[in-house]
Amino acid sequence: MSLFRTILVADDEPSIRHILTLVLTDRGHEVRAVADGDEALRELAARDYDVLLCDVRMPKKDGLSVLREALAAHPGLTAVVMSAYGSQEQALEAVAAGAFDYVQKPFKPEEIVFVLRKAEERERLVRENRRLKEASLPSAPDGHILGASAALQAVLKQVARLAPVDTTVLISGESGTGKELIARELHSRSKRAAMAFVAVNCGAIPSGLIESELFGHAKGAFTDARTAKRGLFAEADGGTLFLDEVGELPLSAQVKLLRVLQEGEIRPVGESRVEKVDVRVVAATLRDLTKLVEKGEFREDLYYRLNVVNVRMPPLRERREDVPLLARSFISRFNRELNREPPVEGLTPEAEAILTAYAWPGNVRELENAMERAVLLADGPLILPANLPDRLWAASPPGPTGPALAAGSVQQDGTDLSLKRAIRELEESYIRAALRRTKGNRTRASELLDISHRALLYKIKEYGIDPDAEAERG
Fold this sequence. Notes:
Elements: E1 6-10, H1 14-26, E2 30-34, H2 37-46, E3 51-55, H3 63-73, E4 78-83, H4 88-96, E5 101-104, H5 109-136, H6 150-162, E6 169-172, H7 179-188, E7 197-201, H8 210-215, H9 232-235, E8 240-244, H10 251-263, E9 265-266, E10 275-276, E11 280-285, H11 289-294, H12 300-306, E12 309-312, H13 323-337, E13 346-347, H14 349-357, H15 363-377, E14 382-383, H16 390-394, H17 403-407, H18 419-437, H19 442-449, H20 453-463, H21 467-473
Parallel strand pairs: 1-2, 1-3, 3-4, 4-5, 6-11, 6-12, 7-8, 8-11, 13-14
Antiparallel strand pairs: 9-10
């Protein structure tokens, strides 16, 4: 069954209106045909249409103006532009204005049918993408950008403005702040949402392979090129390519990237031909690209091409009010992933205070790691300060939420603040918790504790711990 039930044809040529009405009606569509731009807009305002087939040159209002007004009023409308006076520039202008495709007159009716079939496939992908996303929201908030802080909300407002346009965006920020999440948000809110989102860490690919990875290569282009390979730009055609750590690109690859941004074309390694690609590029960096430009390590012209708009992701220490919200989200996720029974329900006020006070140099990624560990080691329904990594409460001020209380060694008068004693007691509690969780399995416990098996055996002996007894308590 066709997704496109109703189609509006706007063309001043009676023969075009007649043939399209016959062909599309024969294929089960409900078709209405009008002769000028004003009448097309009135018809769109009067009833809902799935598709607009619009000529560029029409009396009273030209097709591109109709297209812009129609899509502004009806964002879900699929539009196809037709013209006998077309040029590549006009086609690009139509697509940039939101048209799905551009058809050159004269055309065969089958060409229109084929374009509509492609548009239907895209619409199915968009709807399926939306359905899956909505289905995942109640049970899996992870992957969504969480936070109510003013700093994060300012970023999300910026993303909302940038997503609908194809402007190149440079995302800056410290490691672990969620730069890829922002890139994915830009993609998911754009008209490219149903197409591919391809992410690549430029610093993780050897410099000798980066050009092949990005642009592809021909068979025999180099020693190990036994077959031709599509590059990541080709994989992302129609969608978004996220270049993480773009400052790590070698200068040779920078030249080719600049050409893609300027000309919209790639040349695979070992090929003489070029390929056209339609890709939105979103880049990210934690390095200062202006300093790399000054050192001659990054091309100045490429920097300006990438840095059309800069989105700065704030570090977690600038959005501390988001820490408890993120922590609870991670607890919910790790309850599922680690099959916690009974699940961890939350944090004690003391543990939450420690999380909020900590500076989080590793940002959200460090918080995620800390909460995974805490969910693993928690013995009861709530995460205690003792379940948190020692670096967190070592950074906390002495007092009711400090290290001594975390380890249970503060006396009533608050005078026992021995850091050594607190660390030893916490270390012992971690080991006991890990042995209980693993039913006395020392190898698995050493993996949970992130120490060697030999180190665990030594500490078990040092603290006089009976693994079998701990296993029975678990």
